[in-house]
Amino acid sequence: MGNPVQRPLPDVNDPLYQMHFQGLKDNQLRVQQCDACGQRQWPPRDLCKQCHGDRFHWPVMPDQAVVYTYSVVYRAPHPWFKDHLPYAIVVAELENGLRLLGNAFGEDVEKIQCGQLVQAHFQHDEDSGVCLLRWVPTC
Ligand SMILES: [Zn+2]
């Protein structure tokens, strides 16, 4: 047996995303919110898109969302995904209109529909210590 294939992971130390990934490790969905005007934005930016403020905090969001759009993947883009096919790439909309990308795995992925409720799950990778957002259909 060769070495197991490592899952490709995002750069969790990117300063712009650090608070988000730390939130996931704490089983919390956190997004960037401007200190000056209260605008929440995703993806995070250096400046607020509304007032150009540069100071932010990272409030915890509700962990339920609605499927805005999705795509079911049948061909692995990386060897790690071969054992996880099919899986879905899901853009889920929070109640405040922010849309977050996450994957969905399991036998129900081919039944996913736009408008469906999904629950955020926090997928902890033991080897790397990284936690990723996973959307799980609630029905
Ligand atoms: Zn602002």
Structure characterization notes:
The chain is mostly beta strands and 139 residues long. It folds into two domains: 12-61, no CATH class; 62-139, OB fold (Dihydrolipoamide Acetyltransferase, E2P), CATH 2.40.50. Helix content is 6%, strand content 35%. The chain contains one helix and ten strands. The chain has one helix at 18-25, and strands spanning 29-30, 32-34, 40-41, 56-57, 60-61, 64-73, 87-93, 99-104, 117-124, 131-137. The strands form three sheets. It has a five-stranded antiparallel sheet. A three-stranded antiparallel sheet has the order 3-2-4, with no helix packed on it. A hairpin with a 5-residue loop joins strand 2 (32-34) and strand 3. The chain is globular and about 45 Å long. The chain starts with 17 loop residues before the first helix and ends with a strand. The mean pLDDT is 93. Bound molecules: zinc ion.
Counting DSSP E segments of at least 2 residues, the number of strands comes to 10
- Number of helix segments? 1
Q: How big a fraction of the residues is strand? A: 35-45%
Bound molecules: zinc ion
- Radius of gyration of CA atoms, rounded to a whole number: 16 Å
CATH topology of the largest domain: OB fold (Dihydrolipoamide Acetyltransferase, E2P)
Note the quaternary state here.
single chain
Going across the biggest sheet, name each strand in turn: 8-7-6-9-10
- How many domains? The number is 2
Query: Which sheet architecture does the biggest sheet show?
Result: 5 strands, antiparallel
